[in-house]
Amino acid sequence: LKxxxxxxxxxxxxxxxxxxxxxxxxxxxxxxxxxxxxxDEAAARVxxxxxxxxxxxxxxxxxxxxxxxxxxxxxxxx
Length: 78
Fold this sequence. Notes:
By secondary structure, the protein is mostly helical. The chain contains 4 helices and no strands. The two termini are 18 Å apart.
């Protein structure tokens, strides 16, 4: 999960949310919420080297939500 919270990913998520803000404010709000959840998760594990697979899988929800919205906006499928 930490690897997914890189500047390129965050930039893509923010650009997508900004594009959605005008035409689909609810989707933009969902993206900001998911991005915040990812940031909270990463901050909580800043000094953790290993994470149980079960926790890693459980934490993927916000990441997948962001990718779905980003690909939906671009016309792609996930």
